[in-house]
Design brief:
Layout (H helix, E strand, L loop, with lengths): L1 E3 L5 E2 L3 E8 L4 E8 L8 E3 L2 E2 L6 E2 L9 H7 L11 H7 L12
Length: 103
């Protein structure tokens, strides 16, 4: 998740423009990243941490999509991030039970 320092909006992927530089013998490509809303180059990658274990989330993560659960358990989108399904289950205190345990 990225955040623009100028307009304050958050977004998944920045707008990217590529520029080829170099001479005949050596060439390279530079990627310029911009905010997709205001075209500002003043953007930063937001650090997301798992709401249960606190580990840094690098790529994919899990989040609750149900509106009722979102409003009940999370004050912001940053708190609705989990590194694994197990961490989410721990967070909501989900445990496995069997019918034999009830007797």
């Amino acid at each position: 998740m990225y955040k623009c320092n100028d307009c304050g909006r958050e977004f998944e992927n920045p707008k990217v423009e590529k520029e080829v530089i170099g001479t005949d013998n050596q060439t390279g490509i530079i990627d310029y990243e911009y905010c997709p809303y205001c075209d500002s180059s003043s953007i930063k990658l937001k650090e997301l941490k798992c709401s249960n274990c606190g580990s840094l989330i690098i790529n994919d993560y899990y989040r609750v999509l149900d509106n009722i659960l979102q409003t009940k358990y999370f004050d912001s989108e940053d708190e609705n991030c989990f590194c694994s399904k197990d961490c989410f289950c721990d967070y909501v205190m989900l445990e496995e039970a069997s019918l034999d345990d009830d007797e």
